[in-house]
């Protein structure tokens, strides 16, 4: 979990809150540890953000510090921290379908989507053939249980959000994402053609950053999604990262804005997509 500064800051914020509760009670860390039956260093590890407390740890804190009214809120806070950095092997241990379903509530409540990708076409804009090729590769590479058909269908069904409600989508692609061949030439040609079609939707803004763009000020970064101004999701090699710290969400929003300045839109973007299609022949 230490690979995310957002997660670490959330740990430290929780630890600071617990330290304040303990000090308000008049207990020292040693006294609290003694009453709870802990090693005397445990309070320090928790209060300095080195350890995420368990539910029982938090119940002990609030019991001995006379703050039982805060127990439920503290437990919910700690559980959210634990869910901020989730390894793929944990999320996908029963197959790919669960991972696809896990983001549906977030997608349904979001009204403004911003996505940046340097290597793949983002999920809502993918064709079934493209999705199937991607998920088959993930299934095989990670040796997952085979629920490919169900997972593909979940992802296809999620694409209804493009057409439902007052939702807006701003998508930025590096030109390289148009050139990476996923699923073979025919599947890729179909995907790029579908992209041209979706770019005409009134609620979709599609920008492409040309390979020829000057990247001195801002080079390609990790792929990410911004959901309203509340949350950022990043897919790492080993895990799925959720960022909710406001200042970090703001950093991604600023990065998205700067990347958008390097992109082309409309006819120039369509020309880059058409060029990628032509290269498949």
TrEMBL record:
Q: What domain of life? A: Bacteria
- The name this protein carries in UniProt is Transcriptional regulator
HTH cro/C1-type domain mapped to chain residues: 18-74
MF-aspect GO terms = DNA binding
Entries under Pfam families matching the protein = DUF5753, HTH_31
């Amino acid at each position: 979990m230490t690979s995310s500064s957002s997660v670490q800051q959330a740990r430290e914020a929780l630890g600071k809150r617990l330290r304040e509760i303990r000090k308000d009670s008049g207990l020292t860390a040693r006294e609290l540890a003694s009453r709870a039956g802990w090693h005397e260093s445990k309070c320090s590890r928790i209060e300095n953000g080195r350890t995420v407390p368990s539910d029982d740890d938090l119940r002990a804190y609030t019991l001995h510090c006379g703050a039982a009214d805060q127990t439920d809120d503290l437990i919910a806070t700690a559980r959210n921290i634990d869910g901020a950095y989730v390894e793929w092997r944990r999320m996908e241990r029963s197959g790919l379908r669960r991972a696809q379903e896990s983001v549906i509530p977030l997608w349904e409540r979001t009204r403004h989507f911003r996505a940046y990708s340097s290597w793949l076409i983002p999920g809502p804009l993918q064709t079934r053939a493209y999705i199937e090729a991607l998920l088959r590769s993930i299934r095989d590479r990670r040796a997952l249980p085979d629920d490919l058909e169900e997972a593909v269908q979940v992802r296809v069904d999620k694409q209804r959000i493009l057409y439902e409600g007052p939702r807006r989508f701003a998508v930025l692609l590096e030109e390289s994402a148009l050139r990476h061949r996923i699923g073979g030439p025919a599947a890729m040609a179909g995907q790029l053609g579908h992209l041209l079609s979706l770019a005409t939707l009134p609620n979709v803004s599609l920008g492409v950053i040309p390979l020829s763009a000057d990247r001195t000020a801002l080079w390609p970064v990790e792929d990410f999604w911004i959901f309203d101004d509340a949350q950022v999701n990043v897919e790492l090699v080993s895990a799925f990262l959720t960022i909710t710290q406001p200042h970090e969400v703001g950093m991604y929003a600023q990065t998205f804005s700067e990347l958008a300045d390097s992109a082309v839109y409309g006819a120039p973007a369509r020309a880059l997509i058409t060029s990628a299609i032509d290269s498949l022949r």
